[in-house]
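queue> holo job accepted (acetyl coenzyme *A)
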Amino acid sequence: MSQEIAKLEIEGKIIELPVITGSEGEKALDIKSLRAETGYITLDNGFVNTGSCTSAITFLDGEKGILRYRGYPIEQIAKGSNFLEVAYLLNFGKLPNKKEFNFFEEKVTSFATLPEGITKIIDQYPLDAHPMGVMSAVTSSLSAFYPEFLDAPLDNVQRERVIAQLMAQVKIIAAYFYRRTIGKSAHRSHPSLGYSKDFLNMMFFEEGKEVDEAVGHALDVLFMLHADHEQNCSASTVRVIGSSQANVFAAIAGGIDALWGQLHGGANQRVLEMLEEIQKAGGDHKKFIAKAKDKNDSFRLMGFGHRVYKNFDPRATIIKEQCDIILEKLNVQDPLLDIARGLEEEARSDEYFVKRNLYPNVDFYSGIIYKALGIPTNMFTVMFVLGRLPGWLAQWKEMREDVAAKIARPRQIYTGERLRDYVPMKDRK
Ligand code: ACO
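queue> job finished
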């Protein structure tokens, strides 16, 4: 088939731009020759309309509410898979057979303790430090203890090992810091429990108490739903940092920092704080809807809206189901859930939200589940880190394996002062 071409007319000159077609039929204009041929660049605030790469990891169609990892629908993944298997799928492109899964699990297990130097670093943090700052800094610090992985950007073997290492250790860092903040000694990782049960066990271990199977499974589902979301803000950050061949610890730490923001993963903490605020204000969610609609007020309905999903977020639908299951299983009656439901109902029938296609996103109900599990509010975004980690790693790995990958270096349109002469301080007014 001949190459499809789009034609662009600029200043009377027609230039031809190749059309790139994805495997689901999405189209893009390849503009790499644009500047050389015309002197023009494209300008796209917030990359709303810019494809930064081609990728075979995750497909999503925001209009239809479709999300697939390596071709598998998120609904089937959530029903049948487990988080470690999803990590394998995202990173290695296929569902593992038993032997492959066991091998991967063994590799992850071989990293199931933190270097002593890392625990000493964590011990230095103030107990009220925000856990996201700790996660980012300590992940970056791992580079000092695993110098062999500094070569991972260019070395296939080290790349696969460091993926297993981070899958094992990031959750231990989170649990270790939490145990310190509640004055309890760390409890070691037992990967054979399964990713999520092991994490909950490290967080809440008490002699004679076991993590409930169904609760462990529900958290695993939540992690699977968060595992990748193509070129979102944090994944793009990981790619941008990784594009300079910086080490993977730096790239993942950057992803953690980008996720922290309240317009991204930090929204899950802000949702719960917003629901509590509404509760304190007597449960009047209408007042908050009005605030969110008021253009003179910077308040936004947290957990609502999405850059890509303009119909519904398929993850939010599954999370809402899981929320009911967990609250029932743990026998928790949370009035915040009623407030959340009321808010959703109100917003979904309000013209402002309908017209702008604003629906609950993945963060809207996840906080209620984390709260029910006993996770403190300031650790909600850390839970997102654990879920998103395999996706970040897969995005980084895919980029590093692409021989044509280039350093990320966008351009700009300069709008500052034109040429002027330097004035010595003594002559300035
Ligand atoms: N509450 C009220 N109004 C909103 C909201 C909201 N939550 N989200 C968007 N809008 C409005 C905007 O004011 C804008 O209105 P206008 O057209 O009259 O100016 C319109 O909807 C479009 O919003 P943008 O900010 O242009 O949309 P964008 O795609 O850039 O932002 C985002 C998406 C950041 C998610 C936004 O919807 C938001 O701030 N949501 C709240 C924070 C949140 O829940 N973030 C988590 C996202 S999911 C994730 O990252 C895991």
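queue> The chain has a mean pLDDT of 95.
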